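Hi F.,

I've been meaning to write this up properly since the lab meeting, where we talked about keeping a consistent format for the predictions we share between groups. The idea is simple: the sequence comes first, exactly as it goes in, then the structure tokens exactly as they come out, then a line or two of notes. No screenshots and no reformatting. I'm using this chain as the first example so we have something concrete to point to.
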Amino acid sequence: MTDQIQEIVTRLPDMESVTAVWDTAEDRLGQGDVTFVADLGVALATQYGSSDARIWQYRSVFDRLLRLLALTPGQEHAESAARLVAAAPDHGKLARYAASLLADGQAPQDLKFTFASDSSSTDALDELRCCLVQELVLRGVPIAENPEIEAWATSPRRRRHPLAWLPLELSAIEETPSLPSYSVGGSSYCMPYGAEDDSAVTLGSPADLPSVTDTTTEAFRESAAAAVANWAEESNGCNEARSYDLSGPIHAEALPDLVVTLGLECLSGTDSLERSILTGCRPEDAWEVLFAAASTGGAYNNGEYGAYGRLAAWRSLAALSGASTTAPVGEVEERARACGWYSFGAASKWFRGVAWDMGLVSVSQTGRRIAVLAATDTD
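Output, unedited:
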């Protein structure tokens, strides 16, 4: 450890501002001294990375160092970013976050070293690799054309990892996923909530409605709400997921009336003059909303990032479509395409009306099963 690094580590808790440390690291990296930046990050993680010692100054500087390394193109920078991940205790989502940064900032050829057979195999780096595979898939990287990555991703050791359920290429329903754009100082991402088109479904006649049986189970709730669980667990959000069997097929014109009669908490307080109008959408639109909710999070959190965001979106889509969450993704996609999909919102007290409001309704191919997912969050 150099004297300068030791001085920064010692003085860090007393600093009222860490911008001078940011500037030092950026200057040294600009001079080609990648080792200094990586060594500083490792030293800080060793001293302050434990749960009891994670002072705000450490969190701020470590994040800056990780972004500097991960977003500066070149294998040496990517390797150094991986060093930081291996050195720092992962208190939640460090590997997921680092994988998202690396996939955004590095060319695939500069990430192949991560998957080399002789590379170190710690739990932190294995999790980084698992996430990195899916982050690359989301960015359209053809894994089959990258033998090192494909060999690692399809090895027997990977089959038990939760992300192994996901295919190594995008399905048609995923189209081009909306992903964050990172810079050293911040990030941006889209929020595709709300109706996508003007095909609003008009109100029908309540007299024509079939009888309804609530079939909601805890297992369904957990799976259907997988994409928005982070809004409730890490921010100010809440969600509602319900499923129903119908005595007869429901027609699109009568669906808004039926939804209003279900006793949904998200629609409590609405009357006949305020009934929500459902808007028809594609299964691709439903997946996009679920993925955005899962990967980028709500008002006060950063979500699950790309890899686990993709997993959560497919889990929700499976439950809402009536497919098994253990079925192959291709089977889930088939079931989703057979369903009718609608988005909705309402002027109820449940929806916060800020930026994070979403409502989805799926109708089975026979019209005799519907599922609802609503979520809201606020700052």
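Notes:
The mean pLDDT is 91.
The longest strand covers residues 238-246.

If this format works for you, I'll send the rest the same way.

G.
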